[in-house]
Amino acid sequence: MATTQNKDYYATLGVKKTATSDEIRKAFRKAARKYHPDVNPGDKKAEEKFKEISEANDILSDEKKRKVFDQLGFYSDQIDPATAEAYARQQGAGGGRAPVDFDGFDFSGFQGGPGQHAGAGTQTGPGSPGWGSFKDIFSGIFSGQQPQRPRGPQPGTDLEYQATVDFWTAIRGGQARIQVNRHETCPTCHGQAHMGGVVQCPECSGTGQVTQMGGRMKFNIPCPRCNGTGRASNDCPTCQGEGVVTKSETVEFRIKSGTRDGQRIRLQGKGNAGLNGGAAGDLFLIVRTGTHPVFNRVGDDIQLTVPVTIAEASLGAKVDVPTIDGRAQLKIPPGTQSGQKLRMRERGVENAQNPSQRGDEIVTIEVQVPTLNDERSREIMRELGKLNNQDPRVALFDKI
Ligand SMILES: [Zn+2]
Ligand SMILES: [Zn+2]
User: Residue 236 C-alpha to ligand 1 middle, in angstroms?
Assistant: First the structure.
């Protein structure tokens, strides 16, 4: 069996195994400047070296990839860090690296059990406990390819959607609708997924074996689709053997008055259809309430800014302000400042849990300064200035 040297990415970049990501980045940059093909036109050796350092950097600069490499002494996209760790633990050696080279390795050779893998060039000898569980570990690598679907009833999965509800519907309650994509029981096979009979497995063309590439490694593994038998069940053409089809559907739902932004609504049985008679999942809606050009809703409170004249603010006044129930009178106390907040009790939103409770409307006063276009108004303003000549900036300077 042909074996190649394991790569030592750390040596390639000239860093210690304990190097920080910063040190790795710096080492790569330095080497890249030296070996970049632009700097060494036509130099095959430099080009090769540049490829090597790029590969080393690709692995070591990625925390997950580096972890796999540290555990196994090689890297493959097919292996996640948890599997690598489990494998390293299996190897015993206190989490040390396993100097195994899988290049060109025919994995199917292991099915006969330990003893057939002479020449793999490993520390772990044939028949050692490490090898016995080797197959189990690698079958775990190709996760998500469970060969056989369970035949019993399987419940459908839940769905979660964000549902935008307009400002007034959220406050007053009402009906709303949302478009969802959900799995429905296949109308052709009624969820059976198969049409009966057996056909040649389309995945492996009947050979029962498929080749998996993992970086430089190549594995022949039993075909996950047919479990190595080369024969597959006759899948329903409508659902391709899934038993369910995806359908876009408009779902109508009721909104309680006072529904808040972010509130969850559960619609039982409106999730994905189950398999083999399993119950459907639920549909969860996260309500996003719409905004309004004047009212700003914060929980059950309504906030808005109301402009008043200088005369209204200084002398006091009763002004009409908008509320979610229509106009209401607000008393502006004499001497109200711009930015001051006035609370109108129970003019806010009905509480969804307790409809007898209402929020408040909080009015921010904005004093509007008039533009004086006539001499008489300017005269009055000057007069007013003379009569009230306190310096409003005194407190400001006092604090310095
Ligand atoms: Zn079907
Ligand atoms: Zn197959």
Answer: 5
| Ligand closest in space to the Cα of 206 | 2
Ligand 1 geometric centre to CA of 239 (Å) = 4
Q: What is the pTM of this model?
A: 0.53
How many A from CA of 195 to the centre of ligand 1? 8
Number of Cβ within a 10 Å radius of residue 189: 21
Given this model, what pLDDT does residue 84 score? Answer: 67
State how far Cα 96 lies from the chain centre. 34
Question: What distance in angstroms lies between residue 213's CA and the mean position of ligand 2's atoms?
Answer: 17
Write the CB contacts of 367 (distance below 8 Å, at least 6 apart in sequence): 307, 308, 309, 310, 313, 336, 337, 338
Report the side by side order of strands in the sheet with 264-267.
Answer: 159-165, 283-289, 264-267
Helix (H), strand (E), coil (C) string for 356-385: CCECCEEEEEEEECCCCCCHHHHHHHHHHH
Q: What is the pLDDT of residues 226-274, one digit of tens each?
A: 888 998 888 898 998 888 999 999 999 999 999 999 999 999 999 999 9
